[in-house]
C-alpha cells in the first residue's frame, strides 16, 4: 500500500525549521546533466534584471517545487491541492493553475481529481523529453511547421524591406503596409485552428520546439507562438500568445532541474 503524503497547508511563518519532506538546495548554483547537455544555472543568471512582476510566477513555482523531493520512493504518493497552495503561499489561483498545467505537460505532476494533483517527481523527465521529441518529429511534423514559419517570417522581412525603400518618404503608407504584413496569413494553413489550444498542449509543443530546433537552440517567444498557434493571428493575438509563452518559460526555467535557459 502506498503512503499518501499531503504537503500543504503549512504556513511559512510557523517555523524556521523545515519539515523532513522539505528538499532544499544548499547552493544557488546547480549543475545538471540532462539529455547529454550540461547546463550551469544560478538564480541571478536565470532571472537577470527581470522585474518582480515578471518573475513572480517563476518564484511561485520554485516555492512549490521546493516542498517536494526531486525523486520519490515507489511506495509513496505525494498529493497537493490547488486551493491549499493558493492559501498557503498567498499566490494567485490563475498562476498556480498555470504552473500545474506546465508541470502536468512534462509529467512532473498528474491530475487525479478536481483541483488535486499527484507529484511524480523528476525521475521520468528524461523519458518524457525523449517521448515529446519523437512525437513532435514523427507524429506532428513540427520540424516542417518550424521551417514554414521561418520562411514566412523571412519573406515578410524581405517584403517589408522593399516597401520601406519604395515608400520611405511616406511613413503613413509604410506603417499601414507593415501592419498588413504582420497580421496576414502564412503558408501554415493546417495550424489555423490552434489559436485556442489548451495550455497543457501548448506547453508540450513549446518544449518540442526546443528539442527539435538546431543548435544553438535559441528561440524567440514570438517565433514559438507562431509555430504553436499559427501565423494567421492579429498583432494583438501574437502579443497575447507570446505573453502566455513567457509565463510558461518562467515556470520551466525555475524548475530545480531546468532544461531551458532564459
From TrEMBL:
UniProt cross-references to SMART domains, sorted A to Z: E2F_TDP
Alphabetically ordered keywords of this record: DNA-binding, Nucleus, Transcription, Transcription regulation
Domain E2F/DP family winged-helix DNA-binding: 52-121
Signal peptide: none
Membrane-crossing segments per the record: none
Compartments where located: Nucleus
Region span, Disordered: 1-21
Coiled coil: none
Cross-referenced InterPro entries: E2F, E2F_WHTH_DNA-bd_dom, WH-like_DNA-bd_sf
Family in the record: Belongs to the E2F/DP family.
This protein's name: E2F transcription factor 8
Species for this entry: Caligus rogercresseyi
Amino acid at each position: 500500500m502506498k503512503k499518501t503524503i499531503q504537503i500543504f497547508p503549512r504556513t511559512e511563518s510557523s517555523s524556521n525549521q523545515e519539515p523532513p519532506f522539505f528538499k532544499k538546495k544548499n547552493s544557488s548554483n546547480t549543475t545538471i546533466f540532462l539529455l547529454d547537455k550540461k547546463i550551469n544555472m544560478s538564480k541571478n543568471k536565470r532571472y537577470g534584471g527581470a522585474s518582480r512582476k515578471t518573475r513572480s510566477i517563476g518564484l511561485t513555482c520554485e516555492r512549490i517545487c521546493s516542498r517536494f523531493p526531486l525523486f520519490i520512493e515507489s511506495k509513496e504518493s505525494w498529493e497537493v491541492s490547488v486551493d491549499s497552495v493558493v492559501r498557503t503561499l498567498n499566490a494567485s489561483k490563475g498562476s498556480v493553475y498555470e504552473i500545474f498545467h506546465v508541470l502536468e505537460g512534462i509529467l512532473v505532476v498528474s491530475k487525479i481529481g478536481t483541483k488535486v494533483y499527484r507529484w511524480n517527481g523528476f525521475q521520468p523527465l528524461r523519458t518524457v523529453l525523449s517521448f515529446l521529441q519523437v512525437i513532435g518529429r514523427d507524429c506532428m511534423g513540427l520540424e516542417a511547421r518550424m521551417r514554414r514559419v521561418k520562411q514566412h517570417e523571412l519573406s515578410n522581412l524581405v517584403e517589408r524591406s522593399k516597401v520601406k525603400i519604395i515608400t520611405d518618404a511616406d511613413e503613413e503608407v509604410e506603417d499601414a503596409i507593415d501592419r498588413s504584413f504582420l497580421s496576414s496569413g502564412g503558408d501554415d494553413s493546417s495550424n489555423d485552428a490552434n489559436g485556442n489550444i489548451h495550455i497543457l498542449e501548448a506547453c508540450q509543443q513549446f518544449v518540442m520546439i526546443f528539442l527539435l530546433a538546431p543548435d544553438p537552440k535559441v528561440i524567440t517567444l514570438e517565433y514559438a507562438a507562431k509555430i504553436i498557434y499559427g501565423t494567421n493571428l492579429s498583432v494583438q493575438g501574437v502579443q497575447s500568445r507570446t505573453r502566455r509563452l513567457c509565463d510558461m518559460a518562467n515556470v520551466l526555467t525555475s524548475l530545480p532541474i531546468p532544461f531551458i535557459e532564459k
